[in-house]
Write a structure and sequence with these properties.
Layout: E1 3-7, H1 9-22, E2 27-28, H2 39-48, E3 53-56, H3 59-65, E4 72-75, E5 92-96, H4 99-104, E6 109-114, H5 128-135, E7 139-146, H6 157-170, E8 177-181, H7 185-194, E9 199-204, H8 206-210, E10 216-228, E11 233-234, E12 239-240, E13 245-251, H9 268-282, E14 288-293, E15 296-300, E16 308-314, E17 325-328, E18 339-342
Parallel strand pairs: 1-18, 2-9, 3-4, 4-5, 5-6, 6-7, 7-8, 8-9
Antiparallel strand pairs: 1-10, 10-13, 10-17, 11-12, 13-16, 14-15, 14-17, 15-16
């Protein structure tokens, strides 16, 4: 009995191909938990559709992925001089976000990140004159810009990239390749049209692997079902059942990422009101689980355990049976499944 990720493989791969057609030279990204699919699976997919490069998050991920993927490995986390050394093959390319970092990467293959409106990391316009001598000591694979997802000020993502292209050109730095992130296909095409001598390479993870939500589905197997009546005590904390129904033990707990979620950026009064309501219910031990039964999201009977969760299903719903599966609405980037099944 397991928490399972079911994949409509033909549909999933058809979506991959659609994205690849929109972004010629696409750089697939595989980092973290492999977007719910795992590193080895995504390395196989990238090999299958013929990618010459795979982007990973850290040097530790690159060290693992070198055995699964035979092409270049682009490490997205920038080099830092005091980082722990990790043995990597020559096909590894390091991101660098400072002039000092470029100087310390003598002989290495590097991509230089520029500071975008994200204001996360990158070289600044003032740094550009200092880069001339530094890049002579490395094998420069290109420059990169990481853009924000939302542009609440109404600014244009393409114009931001163009601004950096103009700065790099004015500084007489090579513009053979520019790695970009978070551009729509039309924006990407505009850039390539405006700078035909530069090869733009879009680093894409979420849109590539998760862009068709109907291609995947999480399900947890029912391990046990116990009837309860109002007032019965149950669980670790011996709470009382609020009404008649069933306690349903389902595969999927905290070790899988069930019950864990990333903080959300709330916009507008409606989403904020829902957030306040959820917080209020949580103070009286009322927490919705990600599992659905009978078309409704069901409540946790108590906080999820390490490898399973206990849900409460009221008596008016259909009785769950051991061996059946509950659909689960889980975040791919925080979920670790027991198995993946292709359909």
């Amino acid at each position: 009995m397991a928490l399972t990720l079911y994949v409509d493989t033909d549909r999933w791969r058809a979506h991959q191909q659609a994205v690849i057609q929109q972004y010629p030279g696409l750089v697939p990204v595989c980092k973290g938990n492999g977007y719910g699919f795992g590193h080895e699976r995504l390395a196989d997919e990238a090999t299958r559709f013929g990618s010459d490069i795979l982007a990973v998050g850290t040097t530790y991920e690159a060290a693992r992925m070198k055995d699964f993927f035979g092409g270049d490995l682009l490490v997205l986390t920038p080099f830092r001089k005091d980082e722990e050394p990790v043995p990597l093959p020559d096909r590894a390319i390091r991101s660098v976000s400072s002039v000092e970092g470029v100087g310390l990467m003598r002989g290495a293959r590097v991509v230089i990140e520029v500071m975008s409106s994200m204001k996360r990391h990158g070289v600044t316009e003032e740094d550009l004159p200092k880069l001339h001598a530094a890049i002579d000591e490395v094998r420069l694979e290109g420059f990169a810009i990481h853009l924000p997802l939302d542009r609440t000020d109404g600014s244009d993502a393409v114009e931001e990239v163009i601004g950096w292209m103009d700065r790099l050109r004015a500084a007489r730095l090579p513009l053979d390749t520019m790695f970009v992130s978070h551009l729509g296909p039309d924006e990407f095409a505009r850039l390539q049209q405006q700078f035909p001598r530069t090869r733009f390479r879009a680093r894409i993870g979420t849109r590539l692997w998760l862009g068709d939500p109907d291609a995947t589905e999480y399900r947890g197997a029912i391990l046990d079902v116990t009837p309860v009546v109002k007032g019965d005590r149950f669980g670790y904390r011996q709470q009382k059942a609020a009404s008649d129904g069933w306690l349903v033990v389902v595969a999927g707990g905290t070790s899988h990422g069930v019950g864990l979620e990333s903080p959300k950026a709330l916009h507008g009064m409606t989403s904020r009101a829902k957030g306040v309501a959820r917080a209020g219910l949580a103070t009286v031990n009322r927490n919705l689980s990600p599992f659905l039964w009978g078309g409704k999201q069901r409540w946790f009977a108590e906080p999820p355990h390490m490898q399973m969760s206990i849900l409460f299903v009221p008596a008016e719903a259909a009785e769950p049976k051991v061996g059946e599966e509950l659909t689960a609405q889980l975040r791919h980037t925080t979920t670790m499944v027991d198995r993946t099944v292709d359909r």
